[in-house]
Amino acid sequence: MFTDEKWSSSKNWFIAAVFWIIIGMSMGLLTATKQIWPELLNNRWFTYGHVRSAHVMLVIYAWLSMAYVGSMFYMIPKLAKTKVYSEKMGNFALVFYNIVILEGFFALLLGQTEVIEYGEFPLWVDVQLLVAIGLVAYNLFKTVGRRQEKMLYVSLWYFLGSLLWLPLTWIVGNFPAQWIPSGVQQGLMGWFLGHNAIGLWMTTVGVGQIYYLLPKLTGRPLYSHQLSMIGFWAIATFYVWNGPHHLMNGPIPGWISKAGVIPSIVLLIPVWAVLANFWGTMKGSWSQTRTSVPLRFTVAGTIFYLFACLQGPLQALPSVSSVIKFTHWTVGHAHMGPFGAFSFTSFAAIYYILPKIVGREMFSKRAMEAHFWFSTVGFLVFAFSLWIAGVVQGFAWIEGVPFLQTVLMMEPYVQGRAIGGTMMYVAQFFLAWNMYKTIKLAKLEKKQQAQQQAASA
Amino acid sequence: MERKPSAVLIVALILWTFGVAGTVILPLFDQEINSATASGELRNYQEDSAEARGREIYVQNGCQTCHTQFVRALPADTNQNLGPVTKGGDYKYDLPHLLGSNRTGPDLMWVGLKYNEDWQRQHLIDPQSTSPGTIMPSFDYLSNQELDDLVAYLMSLKPTEERLEEYKKELNDAKSNSN
């Protein structure tokens, strides 16, 4: 029933991922539009809260996570110089994972939510998703176990760590709330997942992708192995402590706040180590970004990663937090890592890997260019609208401007966000169309080749 | 270690465990967040009471995606008259917690102090009629029973009288100090 074809897992996970980026971002665009026309599509199922939750959960656990798994089903065996342990199991896990995501999507539209951000699926969905993630991790750990290459390249460190951390973090964040002291304690556990879904899954797999892609795309070796080790262990040490900064200045004791804030600031160290390594590898290759779209996506991803990681520690300072927390700023920041940095590197991974799997170039170079520019310009419009809005809003609250008036003040920025968001959304159709065409043509060409061979034989 | 995946995994697991211990396990032993305040006790709703059902409706309709229940000792919150600064113990009976992370709409920690039942009901059915220009969608799709329950929950979001007095006194002190 499930195919055993070489690289089929990687390819199929990518296809599913791109399907979900369209659905997930539709939900995002609907969320943005509802902030302009609140009565748009307003009913029991598509009420604002449901749509927003569905957007967050789908772009992270459907689009981005599936693109990550697709990348790992290619990069891990390549780095280990071996085959995927079981392509069949990889394809089965994909079908199962997609069923679970669908369940979660409908559960959210029906109003079943665990409330925890980045962990909103209800418990019955969480358990199944854990099994699906477990299957993927098992398959990939087994693949590493059968490696022919003894040295573990840094990307493998990141992938191994992430595949261990995600299921564990998922368990802590989704732990049945009835079994723990409720209230703030549950908030801390929820934010442990909320921040580490980013820190120990999105960031670490994404950085692993970049470490893989940069040397391949530029044809130059990694700048420094030592530096990559420092970066990895520093992320592993400090990221996991970041959760409490989400409740900063709030109802948590000072010591918990400090335990969350200090590591958040220390994170500047690994970020710098990682980026110095990326850009060191880029030395002499910058001009290639003009012609190579995958390389341009990767490098743009590293730049957005830098800015996300400069904002992060800054926002973790209590004084900065006191102005921008709860405003539109946070929404802008929350999109920079998952979209600007790691969706970009995943786009690069798709554009690099897919041609290798199907045996033909991407169908349209111009569609790739359009994908890049719509994504980048759209994101910048989107994000700057929100950042400016957040600062204005934050100071208006401090001035004591009546709340409703601050909402009215935000109107132009909210519209700017929707315009940028529309561009980001449109961009993904170039990706989907290009992928579809490439795969279809590759099949056709293979068929023709086979016919020609049969004819000449 | 550069040749042993198991070693990488073990160290990765240990570092992760430290983080869990520090930010999740240790807080379990903190009295401040694990013993209810008097105002926190007010939120210990009886099973199947109107307030408890209303809270469910609040969660099911995603109110927490736009509204925080989280008052900080900061100018942004005090100047918006959000009421007494919240303490860990105020949330002791919050299951699931509704702290929130975004104020697309105003904070609702003590919203029961601000409006009466009629206003709340009208605002839920037709937000524009009470707050012109608001971007809150209407919840006119809720049944009468659901609206009653939700209003009952919102009206229950109040501190105790003592807490309120204390807060008002602090406000006055702050004012007379600044004059």
UniProtKB/TrEMBL annotation, chain A:
Organism: Mesobacillus selenatarsenatis (strain DSM 18680 / JCM 14380 / FERM P-15431 / SF-1)
Protein name listed in UniProt: Cytochrome c oxidase subunit CcoN
Location of the Cytochrome oxidase subunit I profile domain: 191-457
InterPro entries tied to this protein: Cyt_c_oxase-like_su1_dom (IPR023616), Cyt_c_oxase-like_su1_sf (IPR036927), Cyt_C_Oxase_1 (IPR000883)
Keyword Cell division (UniProt): no
Enzyme class: oxidoreductase
Any one biological process term the GO annotation gives: aerobic respiration
GO cellular component labels: membrane
Transmembrane segments: 12-33, 53-77, 89-109, 121-141, 153-172, 192-214, 221-241, 261-281, 293-314, 334-354, 374-398, 418-436
UniProt-recorded Gene Ontology molecular function terms: cytochrome-c oxidase activity; heme binding; oxidoreductase activity
UniProt keyword annotations, A-Z: Electron transport, Membrane, Oxidoreductase, Respiratory chain, Transmembrane, Transmembrane helix, Transport
Keyword Transmembrane helix: yes
Gene3D superfamilies xrefs: Cytochrome c oxidase-like, subunit I domain
This enzyme's EC code(s): 1.9.3.1
TrEMBL record, chain B:
Class of this enzyme: oxidoreductase
UniProt entry keywords in alphabetical sequence: Heme, Iron, Metal-binding, Oxidoreductase
Gene Ontology terms, MF aspect: electron transfer activity; heme binding; metal ion binding; oxidoreductase activity
InterPro entries in UniProt: Cyt_c-like_dom (IPR009056), Cyt_c-like_dom_sf (IPR036909), Cyt_c_oxidase_monohaem-su/FixO (IPR003468)
Cytochrome c domain segment(s): 49-158
E.C. number: 1.9.3.1
Protein's recorded name: Cytochrome c oxidase subunit CcoO
Organism encoding this protein: Mesobacillus selenatarsenatis (strain DSM 18680 / JCM 14380 / FERM P-15431 / SF-1)
